[in-house]
Write a structure and sequence with these properties.
Helices cover about 45% and strands about 20% of the residues. The chain is an alpha+beta fold and about 450 residues long. The protein folds into three domains: about 1-125 and about 385-454, no CATH class; about 135-220, Roll (Pdz3 Domain); about 230-305, PDZ domain (Pdz3 Domain), CATH 2.30.42. The strands form seven sheets. It has a four-stranded antiparallel β-sheet. Strands 14-13-15-16 form a four-stranded antiparallel β-sheet. Strand 1 and strand 2 (about 55-70) form a beta hairpin. Helix 3 crosses helix 12 and helix 10 runs antiparallel to helix 11. The longest helix has about 30 residues, at about 420-454. The termini are close together.
Amino acid sequence: MILTIFIGILGLDIVVLVHELGHLVIAKIMGINVETFSIGMGKKIFSIHYKGTEYCLSIFPLGGYCKMKGEKQFNAAVRNKDKTIVYEKGSIFSASPLRRILTYLAGPVFNFIFSILMLSIIWYIGFSTQTYSNKIILLTDYPEIFSVEKNPADLAGLLSGDKIIKINDISIESYADIQKEIYKSPKKKLKLLVNRNSQEINLLLTPTLNKETGAGQIGVAPWINAVIDNVKKGSSADIGGLKKNDLILSANNITVTNYLDIYKALKSKPEYLKLKIKSGNGIRKVSLVPNYSDDGLTDLGISFETETIDSGKINILTAINKGLTETINTVVMTGKSINLLFNGVNLKKTVSGPIRISYYVGSIAENSFKDGLKTGFTTIFRFLSMISVALGFTNLLPIPILDGGLILFTSIELIKGKSLNPGTFNRYQSIGFFIIIIIFFLTTYGDISYLFKK
């Protein structure tokens, strides 16, 4: 886990670096002096000075900041209860409101540009996605494993074995496409076009809100044929002699039509799992000894065949358009996600702080690189682009102390044509600081609880 978090911190620092670099570059263009540019927070462990700016690494590796000239003048004005801040060349508060707005805006804009650039490169060089088919299973068909309570899929009339081919006129080619449309549409009525026994039927479906994740859910799983793709060395399956391309026909006398039938056979925690296997042109029987965790789960050490979807080769203009479109879609989804926070979701589980995000980044990187360098870099930078958009969008919210709050306050100053009152601005920032501290403690508590469970 230590290595996972370390890799995650490096990934998250890339996104923070992009954000703070935006402030640095535009501040210098606007004639504002940047006193310190730091990756990390707290005590400085390394620093160099270049053209009036101290560039440093700080001991706490999450976060960063871009300190601009003007803090001393601002603090003096607050202490003295002055109506204005003393003018000083290079100070952020001595720059015009428009120059300040552009400087505050630069961080989020750089985050969006980073996302567009990374996604455009990914689309241009091409990538492959491992997923499952658009054929689904109703969870209620497996009451031994899942709840028997009817889900939106049941209420809509879906059946196990159906293939979802369109959602709201958007073509569906894989289970990943189903997830993409359902996850972002809780409580939203959707039109489905379904292929059932070679006949097309139309259905209406409304996903419910999963309060643990903030995503939409309908109560289905992918239909995964029990064809073995990989066997983990030293696992129960490996010891039992299972091989790649073996087809599991039955498990403890239960006919296996898809992978869930295997877990159905394991539900009663049998001492042995007796499998009938089709291997090549022959049929053989094997017996595995499952190892169960404290919560009753078991890992046999097998993974099943997936479908590979290749993006294909496209020209640079099409790639840029794809990158731009995907970034815009992520911005929209981020906005919807923030709105869901007010719909009764479990904030402890749905809101992630920097610790948990670092774990996610590191875990995704660690797992993706097992499939090769190209797959690893593609996956990690796609995920980082999503985090970059989320960081940029969140910083644009009109919360004091965030870029959006500073832009709002400075815009009011621009409209009124009057300099800001240092005392009023200080109180405004104090409110924001209080809000951020509360969010920090809530997310940190949730993150630590999550890692302890892991």
